[in-house]
Amino acid sequence: MFTALRATSLTLRGLLRSEFAATPLLAPSFVAGGGMTVNLATPQEMLTAGDTGISLWLYRIVRDEQRLNMSPTRVGLDREQRAPLPLRLHYLITPLADGNRAVEMEQALMGRVLQTFHDIPIVEGALLRDDFAGTGARLTVRLESHGVEEITRVWDALERPYQLCVSYEVSVVLVDSHRPLQPVPPVRSASVETGVAERLP
User: Fold this and answer.
1) DSSP assigned state of 198
2) 195: exposed, middle or buried (C-beta count within 10 Å: 0-12, 13-18, 19+)?
3) For 152-172, how does the pLDDT look when each residue is reduced to its tens digit (9 = 90+)?
4) Most exposed residue of 130, 162, 167, 194, measured as fewest CB within 10 angstroms of its CB?
5) Which DSSP symbol is given to 31?
6) Percent of the chain residues past pLDDT 70, beyond the cut
7) Which residues are CB-contacts of 74 (< 8 A; sequence separation ≥ 6)?
8) Running DSSP on this structure, what letter comes out for residue 153?
9) Residues 28-51: pLDDT tens digits?
């Protein structure tokens, strides 16, 4: 599905929102009227709008080179679907707070983010949201060990001074092909010993 990127972002946002709401220290800030949110906008956009909470910003998309050679999926006897595009998504997660105890709140938010993805490194089943809901999608979330220089380049692009943040890689996200099913020779028989299907000429 072409909405896989959006579904991934909304799934992660939903997970963090529910974990914050279930944390006594943070719940008052995230329940109705609390003022904080988990936002998919950049930190710059949140600050400009006066929003606080967590910026969950998708800032980089790369192909998963290890899965680029996936075979097409046979659909019926004489049709096959082109393999999906496998992607790895990179999210910059930045806590944003204001007030006299802003730094303390930002560190508490960051700690809860780290704890959540440490406890739930694979997001699947009932945790999935949007177009992933009810599917067999499986998202693996991994903390990245970027150096300060690499992350600083991201903040330079945002034209903001460096701020406390972490980067997570989410894989594998599959974007299905939109091409129509391709005709292929139908299968005549399958060899149990070799696992090779013989096709009609």
Assistant:
1) E
2) exposed
3) 899 998 888 899 999 999 998
4) 194
5) S
6) 80
7) 80, 184, 187
8) H
9) 999 878 899 999 999 999 999 999
Which structure tokens are listed for 191? Answer: 């060899």
pLDDT tens figures, 113-152: 999 999 999 999 999 999 999 999 999 999 998 888 888 8
Amino acid at 14: G
Alpha helices by DSSP H, the chain: 4-21, 27-30, 43-49, 102-119, 148-158
Q: Is 69 exposed, middle or buried (0-12, 13-18, 19+ CB in 10 A)?
A: exposed
- Choose among 182, 168, 152: nearest CA to 83: 182
Peptide bond before 172: cis, by omega within 30 degrees of 0?
Answer: yes
Amino acid present at 61? I
Query: Which two structure tokens, joined as six digits, stand for 86?
Result: 């496998």
Of the candidates 129, 144, 166, the residue with the CA atom closest to the CA atom of residue 55? 166
Q: Give the dihedral sign, CA 121/23/130/144.
A: negative
- Positions of E strands within 26-145: 36-39, 52-63, 73-74, 79-81, 85-96, 122-124, 138-143
